[in-house]
Amino acid sequence: MFLSSLEIDVSNYRGRTWIANPYRIHQRLLMAYPDALAEAQAGRLLFRVEDTRRPPRILVQAPLEADWPQGFADHPVLLQVQQKQIEPSLSEGRRLKFLLRANPVRRSNDTRARLGLLREQDQREWLMRKAETAGFRPLAFDVLSRGLLKSRGNPAKGRSVQTHLCVDFEGLLQIIDPQAFAEVWRNGIGPAKAFGFGLLSLAPAGAGR
Predict the structure, then answer these.
(1) Tens digits of per-residue pLDDT, 127-180?
(2) pLDDT tens-digit map of 43-66
């Protein structure tokens, strides 16, 4: 797996509008892979926008190495790029710090549409349910609601505005099933991954953020 950190220039209109639209971010990130591979070919591409930093950055995790100069050749918004190969030790019983930006939802009984879980208790229970099948146990974690995240598609294709509930989970977890946990680490947690959700960032339990 490869992890990239992209610092974004928001001193101009182009950078500010682009980083504010997750739909466009995902489109552009995929262009950094050889021969314009689709996500199904490149494997699961996960990303998270960290817009509280200055300058803001985008973290990208994917199975293939990216060619960022190629992907952004006609879209000069990058200030600094770092990319490295990662393969964390995911042994049974290991404790790790984690950060997850997720879109916690439930299915409507009538329409089967996805509805955001607005109460913190419901959000906590959502993560606990996900953890049961993902091979880990959350030991302690904070929940930070980041409100609604809006994305605008291509007007030429009739794409309307899409809205997703955005919640950050941060804390300490313990690995129960290394194989199941490795799979969810590679493929992400929850829905709306193409809109910047699901990337599970890990760090040693004793490390700073």
Answers:
(1) 999 999 999 999 999 999 999 999 886 655 556 788 999 999 999 999 999 999
(2) 589 999 999 889 999 999 999 899
Instruction: Give the three-class secondary structure for 92.
Output: coil
Phi/psi of residue 127, nearest 5 degrees: -65, -40
Q: Where are the beta strands (DSSP E) in the chain?
A: 2-8, 46-50, 57-62, 78-85, 95-102, 105-107, 114-116, 136-152, 161-175, 200-204
Give the bridge partners for 136, in sequence order.
175
Q: Residue 41: left if φ>0, alpha if ψ -120 to 50, beta else—which one?
A: alpha
> What is this structure's pTM?
0.90
- Residue 188 and residue 202 in contact, taking contact as beta carbons nearer than 8 Å: no
* Residue indicated by tokens 């190629």: 70
Residue with tokens 């291509």: 154
